[in-house]
Amino acid sequence: MTELHELSLSAALAGLRNGNFSSTELVKASLQRIEKLDGHLHAFLSLAEDSALETAGQADQQLAEARKTGTIDNLPALLGLPLAVKDVLVVEGLPCTCGSKILEGFKPPFTATSVQRLQQAGMVVLGKTNTDEFAMGSSTENSAYGVTHNPWDTSRVPGGSSGGSAAAVAGRLAPAALGSDTGGSVRQPASFCGVTGIKPTYGRVSRYGLVAYGSSLDCVGVFGRSAEDVSLMLAEMAGHDTLDATSSKNPVSPMQFPKTDSSSLKGTKIGVPQEYFIDGMQAEVETAVRQAIEQMQALGAEIRPIRLPHTSYALPVYYIIAPAEASANLARYDGIRFGPRVPGDAMWEVFTRTRGEKFGDEVTRRIMLGTYALSAGYYDAFYGQAQKARTLIKRDFEQAFEQVDAIACPVAPSTAFKIGSHGDDPLAMYLEDVFTLPANLAGVPGLAFPVGFDGAGLPIGMQLMGRHFDEAGLLRMAYAYQQVTDWHTRQPDLQFLEN
Ligand code: GLN
User: Fold this and answer.
1) Is 188 in the pocket of ligand 1 (CB under 6 A)?
2) Given Cys at both, which of 84, 255, 355, 449 links 168, Cβ 3.0 to 4.6 Å?
3) Which of 86, 101, 128, 199 is catalytic?
4) Domain covering 4-302+411-498 in this structure, CATH number
5) Backbone angles phi and psi of 318, in degrees to 5
């Protein structure tokens, strides 16, 4: 029998509406699962048990009332469903550390728009999930509060930086979670953990209340068990927000996929870029992704080879632009306004001591790189050049989308690696992002979903990138694929961890 914590978001929604169980039972199932397993996985940095149970109780009252009056269809769309939130999104009253000592003990006075919209839709926040410090990393090893373990193999990383959220969904600790994606931080952990994750178009979801890393790249993203689950949440979060000047006024495309005929991809053109199948990538990843592409062809999609010739510039361009923007964004953490303060005799001493002691190595490295790239005399050579190359990368995508509706490729060159294996080699870690960075630089949406397993039993993900604001198109394609495959339903066996 399926246990409550195993239900997907859509199954849980249906069960709640049918009165098969209550929101309180659902939330308790998640909290019990967390209690049982999170000592091993460390997906969460903090829990909000009391407020979660209180909100679930209110949802149950609303459900009971609506059942009596026959108005169940008028209820908020996601009423009573549990949600985990990456600890870079602020939620009023809950701690927000960004995985950093510099924000230890900080409680924000407001809630991020993305979270607030899901709360308005009835979702229940369970707690905050682990992240690389300020979302800088690809393994969650850069968290100041310890690494998260991959539920498929706890000696391996869950990916990052939204590793806590991905592990929570994969380990069935929560049916859904929010993450952030500046260079791949939703898609790569989704791939490593065998779940579905989307980075929407830049500007599709408000960044208000998302702690800024690289402001021209940052996106709030969603993790779920399937394209359908992800679409349920994105539909609620997407749309203009007056509190974020870069959020788009474009209308949100409907994200409901008709159950009938949805497995047909007839008329859909999918491009396969040769630049994304590189030497040195894990052979099993390439095989699984190519098989998934064939499967989509069998569903009626037309597959075309395409070129994205400036792909190789994405990595160096990203690692100039993101640290440059980070160096400016992180200037605000000086021990005065947020978090702990290391005392000193003069103001500058307070700044330097607090920053020197409280920022971790990777964040310090990025601030130094970014400050250098922006400094007088170097700005044109680095930041200016990078912006020009970014335009070329964006143009590659515009040209490709004149021929195809979506681009299919791997999410990462390998499956989840061992904890500690990239330890003292930042460049090896940066290479993990080679297939995910271009979508952020171009601002286009990217969707990751599971398409197989390697010989070690680790999930393999495929990425679909689409035109600006075509999240619904990408989700429909993955939905069609998931109608005829079951990779997304597989779950890791964690019984051996249960005490
Ligand atoms: N791994 C990339 C970085 O370290 C991307 C992180 C992200 O998307 N937040 O910057």
Assistant:
1) no
2) 84
3) 86
4) 3.90.1300.10
5) -60, -45
Query: How would residue 264 be classed by pLDDT, with cut points 50, 70 and 90?
Result: confident
Output the pTM of the full model: 0.97
Q: What is the dihedral of CA 250, 271, 226, 453, to 10 degrees?
A: -150
Q: In what side-by-side order are the strands of the sheet with 124-129?
A: 44-47, 124-129, 82-86, 177-181, 219-224, 196-199, 446-453, 459-466, 406-410, 269-273, 302-306
- Cis before 161 (ω within 30): yes
Catalytic residue among 23, 162, 180, 185: 185
Confidence of residue 280 (pLDDT cuts 50, 70, 90): confident
Q: In angstroms, what CA-CA distances link 103 with 37, 100, 106, 494?
A: 26, 6, 5, 32
Give the residue extent of every domain in the chain.
Answer: 4-302+411-498, 311-393
What local confidence, expressed as pLDDT, does residue 259 receive? 64
User: Dihedrals φ, ψ of 378, to 5°?
Assistant: -110, -15
State the distance from the centre of ligand 1 to the C-alpha of 24, rounded, in angstroms.
35
